[in-house]
Amino acid sequence: MTKRIGVYPGTFDPVTNGHMDIIQRATKVVDHLIVGVARNAGKGPLFSTEERVEMVREDIAGLRPNGTHIEVRPFESLLMHFAIDMNASVIIRGLRAVSDFEYEFQMAGMNARLNPKVETVFLMASDRHQFISSRFVKEIGRLGGDITHFVSARVAEHLAQRFAQLSDPEDQAKRIQTFKA
Q: Is 32 an active-site residue?
């Protein structure tokens, strides 16, 4: 029997409970799931690619994968090239709201033109996760709000440490000197 390999791509800056819900549910669709952590420096991530990969790995360690092998890999290529390199036949995408649909629909169409052998499968966010986005989590955390309902305790700790670093005057001075160099 041929194994169905799927790729769930994202920036995961940081990984949220919504992402984890999609990962858990994707294990019902594929035999091997590759969580692709995009480098995507253009988005100005709060965490390095390596930090984001590690956070996803930490969070998936507690999942019950329904017999599905899950791995986490960074990538910086075109998503379709990454999917082909991974021998994937499925790209998993999560949809939170109608606003996500238009963008995701266009991306799925472009990917189908690039390689019609790779299907895009959309999983609707669970109702308790529809409003969660990494952007909102970072903003709430940066302003001192409680993010424990939106991310794992480990991710909340990573965020708290990062925000503490960013607010440290000595660290800020070092970053300014680095930019001037």
A: no
CA distance 115 to 135: 31
Considering the candidates 134, 138, 152, 158, report the single residue annotated as catalytic. Answer: 134
Cα–chain center distance at 57: 11
Read off the DSSP letter of residue 97. Answer: S
Annotated catalytic residue, options 19, 32, 129, 158? 19
Tokens 């994937």: give the residue. Answer: 88
In terms of Cα–Cα distance, which of 161, 144, 133 is closest to 13?
133
Across the chain, how many H-helices and E-strands are there? 7, 5
28 in active site: no
96 given a catalytic annotation = yes
Is 52 catalytic? The answer is no
Give the three-state DSSP class for 65: coil
Q: How many CB atoms lie within 10 A of CB 83?
A: 27
Residue type, 66: N
Average pLDDT over every residue of 19-40: 95
Active-site option among 3, 28, 43, 175: 43
Contact by Cβ (8 Å): 137, 151: yes
Q: What is the pLDDT of residues 118-162, one digit of tens each?
A: 999 999 988 888 888 999 999 999 999 999 999 999 999 999 999
To 5 degrees, how large is the angle CA 105–CA 106–CA 108?
Answer: 65
Which CATH fold would you assign to the domain 5-130? Rossmann fold (3.40.50)
